[in-house]
Every structure is written in structure tokens, then in C-alpha cells.
Amino acid sequence: MSLKAPTTPDPQWRTEEEATVDHVMIMDNTSDITMLTLSGLSGETTNRMVIFSLTLLCYLLILMVNISLVLTIILDHNLHQPMYIFVCNLCLNALYGTAGFYPKFLLDLLYSRHVISFGGCVVQSLVIYSSVCIEYSILALMAYDRYAAICRPLDYHSLMKKQNVCLLTCFSWIIPYLMVLVALIKTSTLKLCGSHIDKPYCASWLIVKIACSPGLTNAVIGYITIIVYFFHFVYIFMSYFYLVRTCVKSIESREKFMKTCLPHLVILLNVTVAVLFDVMFMRFGSADVSPMIKNALSLEFLIIPPIVNPLIYGIILTKIRNRIRFILFHKKVTS
Question: 138, 271 in Cβ contact below 8 A?
């Protein structure tokens, strides 16, 4: 009785088969990535409820101060002037932008894993970064409004009539939103080779970084957007520089500048420093930086400006301050 030797497949054939299977599996993995993980607070699990409580308190404070200012301006017809309409839109934009971050972040703090769908990641990035661009557009309108009020007072009412204000306000929302939307539509078509976003929330540039082939288009669109809003900053800064030169000539103009322009300038610098940290760190940041510092830098523009901006306007702008006093103490305060 003869024993038949077991047949062994050709090593070369097995190697080719395994390579083909591995290639198919890689393609399936990259094309089927639908869930992404966010850089959470993995090192802070023992203090998770403390962080949750502080974050919730911060978000409630943002809602309270911004909604209060919006309602104050809407309900008082004396505040239906261009400057206050722009302030109202600034607060509405703060509510819009923070709504893209805080509810999801608060939910993540209740769980150990911080995950988000790819579609949800794109939407979150759209909301947060369109809000940043809208804020710069509104600040540019406010700079133009102050320039017209102080440097061209005789032409102010013709330049800032109701139709013009409505049109400019619509443009300040629609154009930035469309710019960010176009960039993210392109980003949403990318195939992903990774699933980790090194941030507590989504950003289009970080989605591009985990794509299999990011391509040149996404980088070009991103840098064009940065350049456009850098020129917004330059325009606003130059407007205030010109206003300072004009206001030095008269005490009345100087007083008007201190009351209405100084808050805008403080807010501009506040937002710019926060966004600059975020953008520069996202593109050129070192991997050796502590996660706590990384998270703090990335969250600064979602915490400080939405709280500080309405407080600045509520304290410094006389008409708004007097109206808030009247509401709180139920008595009329003369301006």
C-alpha cells in the first residue's frame, strides 16, 4: 500500500494570492471607513465629570450672554441701527459656531471613546470653520460702519441705509459659508487611509491629512481661504489705524472711537490670536507637544470669544448697557 504525498501549492502562487487578498482588504478598509475617532481626554478619565460640569457651565454661560444680547437688541427699537445689528449678528454667529462643538463634546465626555461618523465630521467642520469666517466678515462690516460714522458722518445715512445693511449682512453670512462648503465638498470625496482626528473636534485639514491621496486641490482651497481672511484682517486693522489718525484731531471723535471702536479692536485681536494658534498648530504643530496644551490651543477660540465678545459690548456700549440695566432693575435709565 503506497502512501500519496500531500500536494503543496506553489509558493509563488500562494504569494501572489496572498498579495491580491491583502490588496483587496486594504482597498475595502480604506473605502469603508465611516467612523472616525477624535482626540479626547483619555488622560483625564478620573476628572471626567468635573470637566463635563465645567464645560456645561461654560456652554450655558455662552448661551445666556449671547441670547440676552440678541434679545436686547431685537426687542429695543432704539437699537435697530447698523452698529447694533452687526453686534446682534456677531452674537448669533457665536451661537451657531458653538452649537457645532459643545453638544457633541459634552456627549463625548460621558463616554470613554470619542467617535464621530465621517459625514458628521464634515458637517461639524463646516459649522465651526464657517462660523470663524463669518465672524471676520462681520468684523469687517463693523469696521466699515465705524469708518463711515466717524470719517464720513454727512454720508453715513446714505451709505448705511436699511437696504445696504441687509444686503451686507446677508453677504457676510452667505459668502463665507459657501467658501467653506466648497472646500468641504471636495474633502468629503476623499478616500480615507486613517481614522483618527488629532483634535477634540473635526477640521477639514485634519481630514485631508488622513486621506490616502490628499491631492493639491484641497491644499490650494485651504490656503486661498486663509489668504482671503488674512486680507480681511489687514483691511480691518488698516481701517482702525486710519480711524485713530482721524480721531486724534478732535475730542468728540476720540470719545466716539473709545466707546464704539475700541471694543471691535479688542475682539478682532482676541479672535485673530485664537484662530492663528489653531491654524498654525494644526498645520505645523509638533507631535511632542502635550495633549493638554494641544487641546487648550484648539479650544481657545471656541471658549474665549463667545463669552468675552457679548460681555465687552454689554459693558462698553452705553445704549446696550442702559437697556440691560432697565431690564434687570425694572426702571428707566437715562443715557
Answer: no
